[in-house]
Write a structure and sequence with these properties.
The chain is mainly α. It has 2 helices and no strands.
């Protein structure tokens, strides 16, 4: 279940990232520099969230794989 939560978090964050890019492009085209700067900060924060979600997913998938291997080790002797 934890893996599903982080997959959802990552997918939602990627969608937000896409919207922020579009908003930044619009603000750039209209010459709204204050908004562009703020959106760049949001994009950086969003990138960090994606990185954290990726790292957590990787760790959860590795621990899940190790757990499954351990489960198979306990079943084999039976």
């Amino acid at each position: 279940m934890d893996i599903d939560i982080f997959k959802l978090l990552k997918s939602q964050t990627v969608e937000v990232f896409s919207m922020l890019l579009v908003m930044r492009d619009i603000a750039t085209a209209k010459g709204m520099q204050n908004d562009v700067d703020r959106l760049k900060d949001y994009l950086n924060e969003n990138t960090q969230i994606i990185s954290i979600a990726d790292k957590q997913l990787s760790e959860l998938e590795q621990s899940s794989h190790v757990y499954r291997l351990g489960l198979l080790d306990t079943i084999n002797p039976l």
